[in-house]
């Protein structure tokens, strides 16, 4: 996930995701939920000037938070599970 994709994913997950992104994310997350590469992970975030350690699911293959990754149209699953 490049820096622009990270910013886009965080923005869409916390502030605003359009309808198309939400539908795409739901479809992708159905695959991630079943995937053995989805693991628990903590990410340090800065929200309203405070650092927060947020626990979430991440993809073990790329290290990305799954919800945010799934919201970015250009992102791909490294093993092709999102193409189904
Ligand atoms: S992005 Fe692909 S490899 Fe990663 S958790 Fe989702 S389905 Fe699994």
UniProtKB/TrEMBL annotation:
<protein>
    <submittedName>
        <fullName>Uncharacterized protein</fullName>
    </submittedName>
</protein>
């Amino acid at each position: 996930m490049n820096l622009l994709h990270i910013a886009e994913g965080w923005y869409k997950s916390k502030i605003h995701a359009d309808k198309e992104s939400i539908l795409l994310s739901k479809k992708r997350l159905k695959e991630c939920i079943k995937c053995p590469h989805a693991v628990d992970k903590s990410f340090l975030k800065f929200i309203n000037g405070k650092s927060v350690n947020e626990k979430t699911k991440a993809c073990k293959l790329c290290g990305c938070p799954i919800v945010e990754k799934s919201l970015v149209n250009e992102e791909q699953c490294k093993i092709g599970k999102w193409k189904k």
